[in-house]
């Protein structure tokens, strides 16, 4: 009997693969296995799921992920997601510091706005790739309080992990910006230009 990896909730559109799988210096990731590992990470798959999907050993995938962290100067999965997705947004003329872009990123899946200020701030820090202890220090709160906000966010976004939540938020923003369906993002792009 063997374990079959469940499919991720959403997958990245193939036309985004090349854009998202570039190193910070702009060059393409040469090895297909490294590129595919990054795409699977962005989709929220675990090391084990990636290993099973690629029919490789988990240790091989682990070392490949460490290589990606090193190349992107990321200290973990959230930081890697943030670096890659924020770079893609910036390439489209969208900046996380723009209030209109923040409003769109902080929308719940049903389209309603996220109201609680502490929870909004926690999510913005997560979008920037910060860890719970770093967020707690920046907000002058206890890590347990931040964890409570994060659990609330997971429930609101109907996800089980931070990477799943960030993937949902960032991929929605990238899709919207490429199709120009979110008017405030289009306005933000025009203001930056």
CATH architecture of the largest domain: Orthogonal Bundle
- Low-pLDDT parts are 1-8, 180-193
CATH fold-level assignment of the largest domain: Arc Repressor Mutant, subunit A
Structural class estimated from helices and strands: mainly alpha
| SSE succession | HHHHHHHHHHH
Strand content: under 5%
Q: What general form does the structure show?
A: globular
- Radius of gyration, whole Å: 17 Å
Separation of the first and last Cα atoms:
56 Å
Output the CATH class name of the largest domain: Mainly Alpha
SS field, number of helical segments: 11
Query: What's the total count of β strands?
Result: 0
Helical residue percent?
Answer: 55-70%
Major sheet description: none
**Mean pLDDT reading:** 80
Number of domains: 2
Helices and strands in order:
Elements: H1 14-20, H2 32-42, H3 47-54, H4 58-72, H5 77-91, H6 99-105, H7 117-127, H8 132-139, H9 143-157, H10 162-179, H11 183-192
Helix pairs in contact: 2-4, 3-4, 5-10, 7-9, 8-9
């Amino acid at each position: 009997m063997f374990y079959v990896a469940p499919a991720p909730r959403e997958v990245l559109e193939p036309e985004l693969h090349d854009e998202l799988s570039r190193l910070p210096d702009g060059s393409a990731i040469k090895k297909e296995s490294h590129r595919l590992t990054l795409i699977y990470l962005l989709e929220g798959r675990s090391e084990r799921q990636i290993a099973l999907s690629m029919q490789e050993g988990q240790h091989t995938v682990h070392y490949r992920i460490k290589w990606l962290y090193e190349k992107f100067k990321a200290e973990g999965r959230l930081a890697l997601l943030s670096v890659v997705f924020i770079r893609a947004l910036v390439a489209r003329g969208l900046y996380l510091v723009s209030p209109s872009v923040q409003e769109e990123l902080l929308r719940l899946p049903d389209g309603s706005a996220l109201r609680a200020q502490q929870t909004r701030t926690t999510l913005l820090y997560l979008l920037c790739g910060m860890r719970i202890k770093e967020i707690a220090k920046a907000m002058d709160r206890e890590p347990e309080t931040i964890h409570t906000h994060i659990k609330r966010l997971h429930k609101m976004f109907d996800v089980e992990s931070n990477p799943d939540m960030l993937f949902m938020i960032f991929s929605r923003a990238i899709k919207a910006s490429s199709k120009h369906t979110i008017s405030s993002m289009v306005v933000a792009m025009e203001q930056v230009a």
